[in-house]
């Protein structure tokens, strides 16, 4: 059979599925899009490495409609790609090979709230910020937070086990998922854990779906645990000239205060932010490294302790300068120094790596990577930032103005090998919080052994025997 014939047969299969969804009254016509603009819009995420080439976009409104799509996809051997807010950075939501995209945009309702359990039931298309605002309306808190909270969807967060800026205190998305409703790759509907804190009845299948990037099935509903609201959050931004001092400051504060965030960025990030003009200098002195730390200070003794730690850090010579918020508004302004970095450097077409190592190894790891980049590509500018309080670093290599994007990405592919060999050296992860998708797939073996990967593949075969769920993401079967 020729490639052209196979492509035609696949196209016919897609059209058969779409027609059946309408004719069997599973969907109405408003829930299916096939126009070029829609295929482009819903067929991609924030990555720029793969061109979208979806066959159709479907918008289910219920778990049963999702099930209908999955069963038909199995019958006709058509691949499905799940789609949430499409804010991913690993091409996990890119439909590059004729897939039908299953968008959760219409499954965006917040359901039953259980006050005694601090538990809320939601649909997968609920936007992260929508959940955060609901929690606040109940004087509670959903602590998983990041720059894309205003557009990312909870289904995508669950699929990638999203982290963000509060992990040092509250952990990853995984810690807040008490139950899931999923449609497996076989088309079965499973209700996993049902919101319980204690449930000692064998394998916790819920945990397999968290972080699986839609390769095992589709999450349709989730039960989310909420937390008490933090009180009197206070922010400090400190400047240091040596990276070792960043670690000293982290240790000094963490030993005596429960931090809710400890973020790091370098002088390159500050230079770009100041040039962009959206934020103000935190203080007059320019330093090589900066940390932003946040903690609750509802009582005067906690504030006194924080000031005492700051003064000790100054006396030790670890901190050159610093500032502490005196109001909620000032705390929000200081947070912009960290939150606006990604947007600001986006004009430089950054090549991003999202890696993690043990906090103990961070200083040596950064030294090794800086040496690799400066030795091989002295004209490349490197911007470091990340959630250093949990060992997660974002390495951003900025494209020189005179260099084409294709040449730049090709050069960065060479750098990748050295970077990930260094990650492997320190026993780290090639993807701390962005997922594997397609961009990190060639490098999975730097963090997972061949035997582990074989186990992952066998697990996928149990839930998705026909390999129709997000095929080609994480690994190839």
UniProtKB/TrEMBL annotation:
Transmembrane segments: none annotated. Keywords: FAD, Flavoprotein, Metal-binding, Oxidoreductase, Zinc. This is D-2-hydroxyglutarate dehydrogenase. It comes from the Bacteria. Homodimer. Its EC number is 1.1.99.39. It catalyses: (R)-2-hydroxyglutarate + A = 2-oxoglutarate + AH2. Belongs to the FAD-binding oxidoreductase/transferase type 4 family. InterPro entries: FAD-bd_oxidored_4_C, FAD-bd_PCMH, FAD-bd_PCMH-like_sf, FAD-bd_PCMH_sub1, FAD-bd_PCMH_sub2, FAD-linked_Oxase-like_C, FAD-oxidored/transferase_4, Oxid_FAD_bind_N. Its cofactor is FAD. It comes from Psychrobacter frigidicola. Coiled coil: none annotated. Residues 50-229 form the FAD-binding PCMH-type domain. It is an enzyme of class 1 (oxidoreductase). It holds the Pfam family FAD_binding_4. GO terms for biological process: respiratory electron transport chain. GO terms for molecular function: (R)-2-hydroxyglutarate dehydrogenase activity; FAD binding; metal ion binding.
